[in-house]
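<amino_acid_chain>
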Amino acid sequence: MNLPETRNLLLSLDGGILHLTLNRPESRNAMNRGMVEEINAVFDAVREAKDVRAIVMRGAGGHFCAGGDLKEMMAGGLKAPQPGEADPVVQFSRAFGSMLRKVGQAPQVVVAVLEGAVLAGGFGLACVSDIALAHVDAKFGVPETTRGLPPAQIAPFIVERIGLTQARKLCLTGAQFRGAEALRLGLVHETFADDADLQAKLGATLKQILGCAPLANAMTKEIVLNAGRLDMDAVLDDAAAKFAIAVRGSEAPEGITAFMQKRPPKWAS
């Protein structure tokens, strides 16, 4: 597997874990067009990579992500396109939504480490992670409406993450809150107080992930994501087909044998 060259991301692959760091600290890691394209390229590159078991996403400089780069958007000009021309504002917005879907649907387990600003588009990126760990003082919020904008591409993912009732309140008030409230809302799974606490909790989480069979995890993630999106019979039919593939594959015999022999399976050793 060859990872793409990146200017806005730092990438490091270690023991089956890809560490992806948003690297525009001067703007609190606000996502410009280049960063969105690079995230897409990375997730395309690792989609079929069997040696990548999990992806840890975080931000450089003490912040996760302050949202989209509004300066770049405004600098690009807001003149409406002529009939028949593509609208660059629509294209940028929609590309952001496509990137969120790609991250959310990755077969690997995506772990988000949330510190500092977790706002707007950064909030949306947190919503598509499988597991989220947040600093107790991280600042969360959906401030788009306070700036005269709708949270156009992230709102559907907020609804999926924390439910319609809470999403309505957050999106329509621009409210900001800290890590403890993010935990209460179900946006994140655990909070941490300092780097030592983070390393302990992240290490324990990654150990649990690596204890799971990679293909079984990928299948399970797809089944979970299909629930609520597809007709239930279609979800169960697809899940049964996946179960049969797993039973006849290489992971189930190894996992069951390891269980009976009271030893770790090969993928966890």
User: Anything to note?
Assistant: The radius of gyration is 20 Å.
